[in-house]
Design goal:
This protein has helices spanning about 5-20, 35, 70-90, 120-130, 145-150, 155-160, 190-200, 245-250, 265-280, 300-310, 320-340, 380, 410-415, 430-435, 485-490, 495-500, 525-540, and strands at about 95-100, 130-135, 135, 200-205, 225-230, 285-290, 350-355, 385-390, 395-400, 405, 445-450, 470-475, 480-485, 505. It is of the alpha/beta class. The strands form three sheets. It has an eight-stranded mixed β-sheet, with helices on both faces. Strands 11-12-13-14 form a four-stranded antiparallel β-sheet. β12 (about 470-475) and β13 form a beta hairpin. The N and C termini lie far apart (about 70 Å). The model is unreliable at about 1-40, about 50-90 and about 230-255 (pLDDT under 50).
């Protein structure tokens, strides 16, 4: 038996022994004051959550899944693969995983991907040292659905958190009755944090959660995180920097933090740094979900604002947005510096991305993309993505294959040598082949989106009333197809495609701004993608709106 195999089997035996030693209850309540949460940043021993069990408090939560003997061979195979990677990188320890998640940061609003308007030297360095995914997508056009998909590994149609509301905007302009959305990620879903925690990872969440109900099982501590510092339900962290506990987090009257950290990026980063230092001798998973650059949390230090002002006014971009992005980048530099100081840099998988495109008030012109947050055109769902794992990723490489944030769950598990939890359906694929071989290493068919409702905040160049109407979308290779359910359901469907405008088709390689609709010119490609999309809708059982809205007024003015 080789060294890697011996170590893998030994590790397997240790996991089995740990399974038999019982569990130590976690004593941290998600609604307790932050000072109490910070008392111990070294997580307690693993607990198990039994699927379907009634939950009373997070301290009694049991694990929902268990690695059975029947899964041992799969686990051993995954572990052997991880140890093989470890031999290449000079370590046999499972990698740490750091996920840095921005809020409302546009695809082109980082230095390495912009025209020089944005100052992000640390993110740019990360891009030079890792792999840049130039065709990376969020799973939703706004906050909550994207976060639920990252945690669960499933598309929005699978977990049911379809949007931050599906009935937003004037009802007299809605031709269909929208499908209601869930407001939280159901506790029954096994999150990536739970899967990693089961494998011995210390897990922590800092920042925006946005997928919880009053059920403790939907809070971070009920979804696999040992340590959590987060807002209970709001999207911009009201009270995040001064209030602690439920009452503090829900105090939305003053969203401004202290002058040295008005948007909260340093507060959340400091807590992540403290956790990493406390757990440097065991593998950890940190989900750092900042409130910045979201409108309600957008602010910047005076010195950052001054720096931006001295560079001159940027066309169509808020100076405050640029300054807040600079502070965000500075906090990323602090994280990277701490990893180096702790000598963890070479064994840490770092992922940087955003939850959706920039909102209308901060990035007025997302050129070369079209659309913004809330829309399913590229400007609403295409996001920056960098992955760095020294010894595995090719420094400075670019992967142009389309990828989705549902890919993170299988990627993290594959990197850690952890099997997919029994009964869990993942919609993504592991990105590890693309990390090793960015050009051609990843084989994936298509990416899908589904939103059966209405979002306000219109993109007036496309729609004078809504940011999005009921829609399903597929990206396959260079091609992207939008299926509009109002026209599909009420204006003749497939038989009337020549006249009803139910479908838009774009070749993104030639037309990244989605300006030239080819649905009537390339009917073969249109029908190919439409067939694939309709099959996916049927397979995943995505809810489709078909009921006419009695409040609709065809003569209503925008």
């Amino acid at each position: 038996m080789g060294c890697a195999a011996f170590l893998a089997v030994t590790w397997l035996e240790r996991v089995r022994d740990n399974d038999n030693t019982g569990a130590h209850d976690m004593q941290t309540n998600p609604c307790t004051k932050t000072s109490e949460v910070r008392m111990s940043l070294t997580p307690p021993a693993r607990t198990r959550k039994t699927k379907g069990a009634k939950m009373s408090t997070p301290s009694t939560i049991n694990r929902r899944w268990r690695v059975k003997t029947a899964g041992a061979l799969a686990l051993a195979t995954a572990v052997l693969a991880t140890f093989a990677i470890g031999q290449e990188t000079g370590t046999l320890r499972k990698p740490n995983i750091l996920l840095i998640y921005a809020d409302d940061l546009g695809w082109g609003d980082v230095g390495y991907q912009s025209d020089g308007r944005f100052l992000t030297p640390n993110i740019d360095r990360l891009a030079r040292e890792g792999v840049v995914f130039s065709n990376s997508y969020s799973c939703g056009a706004n906050c909550a659905p994207s976060r639920a998909s990252i945690l669960s590994g499933g598309y929005t149609a699978r977990h049911g958190l379809l949007g931050n509301g599906t009935d937003r905007g004037p009802k007299n302009h809605q031709r269909l009755v929208p499908i209601p959305t869930k407001r939280h990620l159901e506790a029954s879903f096994v999150t990536m944090a739970e899967a990693l925690k089961e494998a011995g990872y210390a897990t922590a969440h800092f920042g925006k959660w946005h997928v919880a109900s009053r059920d403790p099982g939907t809070h971070p501590s009920g979804q696999g995180f040992d340590v959590a510092y987060h807002a209970f339900s709001d999207s911009t962290g009201g009270g995040a920097l001064k209030g602690e506990g439920v009452a503090g987090w829900e105090s939305l009257t003053d969203r401004k933090g202290p002058p040295n950290d008005p948007s909260g990026v340093y507060t959340m980063t400091d807590k992540a740094v403290e956790f990493m230092a406390s757990n440097r001798n065991r593998p950890f998973f940190v989900y750092l979900a900042h409130y910045a650059i979201h409108a309600g949390a957008r602010n910047a230090r005076p010195e950052s604002r001054q720096l931006v002002a001295e560079r001159g006014k940027a066309a169509n971009i808020s100076d405050l947005y640029i300054a807040n992005t600079y502070d965000f980048d500075d906090s990323v530099g602090k994280l990277l510096g701490k990893l180096r100081e702790l000598e963890l840099e070479d064994n840490t998988l770092v992922v940087f991305t955003s939850d959706n495109g920039a909102s209308r008030d901060q990035s007025l012109d997302p050129v070369p993309l079209s659309g913004r947050k809330g829309a399913f055109y590229e400007g609403g769902i295409r996001v920056p993505l960098i992955v760095r794992w020294p010894g595995v990723t090719q420094a400075g490489a670019t992967c142009s294959t389309p990828v989705s944030q549902v890919d993170f769950y299988p990627t993290f598990l594959a990197a850690a040598g952890v099997p997919v939890p029994t009964g869990t359906q993942l919609d993504g694929v592991s990105l590890l082949p693309a990390l090793k071989q960015p050009d051609g290493g990843l084989n994936r068919a298509s990416i899908f989106w589904h939103f059966p409702g209405y979002i306000d905040n219109p993109n007036r160049a496309r729609d004078p009333v809504f940011g999005s109407r009921p829609i399903s979308v597929i990206r396959k290779g260079d091609w992207k197809l939008h299926l509009h359910h109002e026209e599909w359901a009420l204006d003749g469907g497939r038989a009337a495609l020549a006249t009803n405008n139910a479908v838009e088709l774009y070749n993104l390689k030639d037309d990244i701004g989605e300006h030239k609709n080819l649905a009537l010119e390339n009917t073969a490609k249109r029908d190919e993608l439409l067939d694939d999309l309709l099959k996916w809708i049927a397979d995943i059982k995505a809810p489709i709106p078909t009921e006419k809205n009695p409040a609709y007024d065809p003569n209503a003015k925008p």
